[in-house]
## 1
Amino acid sequence: MPGRRHGYPIREALVEAWGRPVLLNNNANLGAFGEWAYGADPLLYIKVGSGIGAGWVIHGQIYCGATGSAGEIGHLTIVENGPRCTCGNRGCLEALAGGRAIARQAQEAVRAQQPTQLALIIGPPETLTAHEVALAARRGDLVAQQILRQAGEYLGIAVANLINLLNPAVVVFGSGVAQVGDLLLEPVRREVQRRSLPPWPRPPVSPRPCWGATPRR
């Protein structure tokens, strides 16, 4: 991808500072490449932070698409006429299950005076974060648990679609919100098992490379 951000030559500056070759890419693609180093291929890596993105490695190569913007799964439409997303559309996965979306739902719950520990956090509702929702959920807060469960279900719908499309050997979740653990990931697993085609989640007995592919050594 281009080594510039808002006109600043990032890659060139790092090459000059370190005296070494430098390659730049987005965090989802590099997360996928890092996981590929442990042996899985094809691999789908999903970053769940304030936003949601994906990187996939196919036969040892990061797939970037025609213009480098492949993997923007946070802007898959999940709910027609859902909440407004930062991209301007409605009902995107990121607007339903990203860190900002989780925080927004917690803020709305506090404003609606729902019975939740989140209302006890010092400061106005606008200061609530996804991290605080996760902490409350671990302490047994039902409102926080429901917010994470719903986010996991939306993620599971998206992941099932990606599995049906890409047939990866492994799906890996990473970044901040993904560290919540089973409160978020168990609903993902259920939706994947319900919506994806066999043989997922059972591993294939003998994966076949696509025609023209070069097997990894």
## 2
Amino acid sequence: LFRSPPEIQKAINEALEEAKAFDLELRTKFQTKAINQLLEAGSVYYQPPADVVEQMRVLGATSAYRSWIKDCVDAGISRELAEKVLNRYIELNKQYDKESNWKSIAEEIKEIQAK
């Protein structure tokens, strides 16, 4: 893939860390508020079984990834480069998920209801 000069890469890395922190702050603030409003209004949260959730995630991601690759190829980008970028994106998302302390909606609802 592409390599940036060290000073630019440093700025990118710092900006990414700042963006991750801000994203987490916004998600936490607004997700919690929305969940509380829905529960207070009498809503019920249904969590499908884990295997169903995983099947939906894989099917949705596969379709979206195929579409993105096609759009790249249609725009004149080589399939090989598009797949490399996509694979790196997937890798970084997995890394973010491992490092993040963000709670899923299901996790947060369980905590709220336990109080």
